[in-house]
Each structure stands twice: as C-alpha cells, then as structure tokens.
Amino acid sequence: MSLALDAAAQDLLFREAQTANTFTDEPVTDEQVQAIYDLVKFAPTAFNQSPLRITMVRSEYARKRLVEHAMGANGPKTLAAPLTVILSVDLDFHERLPQLFPHAPGIKDTFFSEAAVREAAGTQNATLQAGYFILGIRAAGLAAGPMTGFDFTAIDKEFFGDGKQKSFLVINIGKPGTDAFFPRSPRLAFDEAVATV
Ligand SMILES: Cc1cc2nc3c(=O)[nH]c(=O)nc-3n(C[C@H](O)[C@H](O)[C@H](O)COP(=O)(O)O)c2cc1C
User: Fold this and answer.
1) What confidence score (pLDDT) does residue 162 get?
2) DSSP H helical segments within the chain, as ranges?
3) Which label site among 2, 45, 139, 172 has the fewest CB atoms less than 10 Å from its CB?
4) Could you read off the pLDDT of 118-144 as tens digits, one per residue?
5) Given the CA of residue 184, which atom of ligand 1 is nearest to it?
6) Ligand 1, atom nearest to 185 Cα
7) pTM of the predicted model as reported, rounded to 2 decimal places
8) Is there a contact between 105 and 98 (Cβ–Cβ < 8 Å)?
9) Is the CB of 29 under 6 A from ligand 1?
10) Which residues make Cβ contacts (< 8 Å) with residue 182, sequence separation at least 6?
11) Which protein residue's CA is at the shortest distance from atom 18 of ligand 1?
C-alpha cells in the first residue's frame, strides 16, 4: 500500500530480479540498449554532471581482449554472454557542464578545475548511474551480471588509452539461461540498516 509502483513492476525490478551468471543465446540489440539508456539517463547526478560512459563489447575480438583481464569465473561467464558492457567514468566530464548545466556554466571551472576533485565526484556519480543502469536492464526484461572482478587498470590501457576514461564495472546482459541464479542471499532487515536520528 505504501508503494506507487504496481506489484508486477516491483517483482520485475526488485523481488524476482537476480544477478545472472548464465544467459540464453538471444541477442541484446542496440535498440534495447538505447531504450535502457533513454530511461536511466534521467538518474540524478551532482550538477547534472552525468559522468557515466558505457562501452558495448560486441565483437569476438573485443570480447577476447576484455576477458584477458577477468578474474576466475568472470572470464568464461563474459565470453558466453550475448552482450557485455564496460562502465567507466569520463574524467573530463566537466567539459560537458556548459551543455548539461547551462544555467551555471561557470561550475566547470569553479568546482571542477582539479583532476582529483573530478575523479572523486565522477566516480561517486557514475556509480550511482550504474545502479540505475542495472535497474534499466531489468526494466527491459533482461538480467544483469555486474562484476568488479577485473583488472580495471589493464582494461583502461586496453580500451581507453588516453587516460580520460576510468572503468569500474563490467556487466553481462541477456535473458537468463540455465541455472542462471545463485540462491538468494539474505538481506539486512529494515532495523539493521535504517536508523532515525
Ligand atoms: C558492484 C558489484 C560487483 C560484483 N562483482 C562480481 C564479480 O566479480 N563476480 C561475480 O560472479 N559476481 C559479482 N557480483 C554479483 C554479486 O555477488 C551479486 O549481485 C549479489 O550477491 C546479489 O545477488 P542476487 O542478485 O542474486 O541477489 C557483483 C555485484 C555487484 C553489484
């Protein structure tokens, strides 16, 4: 009764959605990814900085270059997924602020002239966008397999040689396959995670 979202959508996005480890062969199209992006681009970020960049890994060659830097089971899982994306932070996101925050274009220089400040803010806000992106994948009727078990420094050298993009998450995307899900692990109860001050 407290939620505005209908029960089927609650299940699709949260209760029945799980991290997928296997996928069917059904392709994930560019149109599906665009539909997901066009939903999740509305996620809030500080000063609307929108630092997340998404790199689709489609070709066999690109996929092999990516899994060179995977740890353990993440390699075979990624080779078998219909689509894999690399999420990264644009460390020069401030160059877009006059476009994205047009009512205060000076913020580009007043707040974000230092690279260290941009990296901290960009990482925080891109990570927030990544959570929305996972929800968007679920909203498209697909499953996500997010992974940090990669050598991201090596991925950056491999795919983003100019040092302006810093990867932080790889996500396999597709329709869940056979035995796709591990048993659901417990979550913290409301009282364990939420306090009132
Ligand atoms: C940021 C992040 C990093 C993760 N890294 C890995 C990983 O490297 N390999 C892996 O198999 N699963 C990885 N996972 C999957 C988590 O273990 C999984 O989402 C969590 O246990 C919840 O599972 P559930 O969605 O089935 O409830 C990662 C998930 C997130 C959100």
Assistant:
1) 85
2) 7-10, 30-40, 60-67, 74-80, 97-100, 107-110, 115-139, 152-159, 190-193
3) 2
4) 999 999 999 999 999 999 999 999 999
5) 27
6) 27
7) 0.98
8) yes
9) no
10) 18, 19, 21
11) 19
Tokens matching residue 6:
């209908």
Q: What is the length of the chain? A: 197
Q: Answer for the pair 44, 132: CB distance below 8 angstroms, yes or no.
A: no
Q: Virtual CA dihedral for 77, 78, 83, 89, nearest 10 degrees?
A: 130
Please state the rounded mean pLDDT for residues 45-52: 98
Q: Could you tell me how far CA 96 lies from the centroid of its own chain?
A: 20
Q: Does ligand 1 lie within 6 Å of residue 159's CB atom?
A: no
Question: Of all atoms in ligand 1, which is nearest to the CA of residue 169?
Answer: 1
Nearest to 167 by CA among 135, 133, 111, 119: 119
